[in-house]
Amino acid sequence: MNYRVYFSDSGTTTKAGFGKVAHLPCIFDSRPGYHRAASRYLIDRGLGVWNPKARGVAIETIAPSDQTILNYAHWLANFLEWANLRGIDLSTCTYAEHVQGRYQTEMVNGIWSRDAVGLKPSTINLRVQQACDFLTWMSDKGLRGPFHIATETVTVKSGSATSSVGHRPKEIEVRKGKVRQNKRRLRMPTDAQLDAWLSRVYAKAGDTKGLMCETILLTAMRREEVACWRVDTLPPEKKDWHINNPAAPLKQQQVRVSIKFGTKGSGYGYDHGDKIGPERSIWIPLELAERLDEYRRKHRNSALRKWVKSAPASEQRRRISETVHLFLDEHTGERITSKHLYQAWTSVELPFDGWSPHLGRDWWACSVLWRELKKHEHLLSLGVETATALLESTAMSVIRLQIQPQLGHAHDSTTMIYLQWVMDMVSVGLSVRYEAEHNNEFQIEINGETIADSKLQQRQP
């Protein structure tokens, strides 16, 4: 690929007076040389100066996250590469003939694909949308004539945890010609698969990265949020821990902590390389809190000593004071980044293709739904239709009051997949069953396999 995404040296860029954009990527073309228009576009997007909806109008906008901007850069570089090889003039190309008619079609047919295989609809739609946004930005900046995108009006249902009309339909404009994609259906590993995978992670990646992976499963934190966990995110003194119900059995107790480093959403600056995002409170199992505290008091110190001793004497004191992250590499003492965490997660045989940290968050959500549905197992004796309606209502309450706040989701659109998961379970082919022949035990099947309740009792949030 001739068009590539690069980052400048943040220190040099900041000293030159451009610290505001030091964290943003740029694009180099096939010469190679700095692609001025594409890089200007990424700056405008990264600073929230321009977006497809506001189009530069002076209204309050939220700047995309660093990862989102990086994705924009890679998608745009792909389009620029295609346009360059096909001899497409960006100042005159059109949506119907070039962007949808050729760029999108070539990706669908596998012509513009590394493996000569048609790309996923989601990948195609993201790339095409970025091309449209860039060409629209060029038009707004006077770098080309008007760029017209064919749109159509569709009706969607929106939801809100606080609105009494949460399912009121509303009309929105969408790009005409998008590649149709199937709705995502959750696939979860069985208990045996999950245990075996996690054991492999601990064995290959080590105890620290294994604990980080397990933290995702038990808290639904994003991998960036786990990597940004600070030494004092969990209060150092146990007397300062906020426990939800101290009188409950230990396995049911949870500790509330607040996180803001690496969280998704608006950015409020940086601290030790971490984006400061919107702060939210989450609950973590008391058992996990105890393990994190033990790691902090014992195992982390040996890793920190390795990191400090590897530096010159003049640098050692600074390393001690500047090492604020909880999770450190066992061998080098360096901070474990979200990239390292992802590599550990995927470095061993997976339960199935596509098992990722993001699905680990989904696993947590499904665990919560399972636990809450078990409290209402008596509904299954009321008949399928009645039980389905009541379980759906219960699931919606759980999603809005427990799952959304923990995941950090602002809208129902990103969590309705869990409601679909529930409905899939109670549909014909029944995944949710009332087992009279097994001591009236309430069981749930995922992918046709019943998952033992004992393991979820151990891991459930």
Polypeptide structure, described:
InterPro entries: DNA_brk_join_enz, Integrase-like_cat_sf, Integrase_recombinase_N. GO terms for molecular function: DNA binding. There is one protein chain. By secondary structure, this protein is an alpha+beta fold. The protein has a domain at 4-151. Helices cover 46% and strands 13% of the residues. It has 15 helices and 11 strands. It has helices spanning 10-18, 36-46, 66-86, 95-109, 121-140, 191-205, 207-219, 223-227, 286-309, 313-322, 338-346, 357-374, 384-407, 416-426, 453-459; strands spanning 4-7, 25-28, 151-157, 169-175, 242-243, 254-261, 270-271, 274-285, 432-435, 441-446, 449-450. A 4-stranded antiparallel beta sheet has the order 5-6-8-7. Strands 9-10-11 form a 3-stranded antiparallel beta sheet, with no helix packed on it.
Q: Which percent band covers the strand fraction?
A: 5-15%
Order of helices and strands: EHEHHHHEEHHHEEEEHHHHHHEEEH
Globally, the shape reads globular
Query: What does the radius of gyration come to?
Result: 25 Å
**Ends: how far apart?**
45 Å
Number of strands: 11
Give the number of helices: 15
The biggest sheet amounts to: 4 strands, antiparallel
Describe the strand arrangement of the main beta sheet, using strand numbers.
Answer: 5-6-8-7
The structural class is alpha+beta
Which segments are poorly predicted (pLDDT under 50) over 5 or more consecutive residues? 158-166, 428-461
Would you summarize the structure shown here?
InterPro entries: DNA_brk_join_enz, Integrase-like_cat_sf, Integrase_recombinase_N. By secondary structure, the chain is of the alpha+beta class.
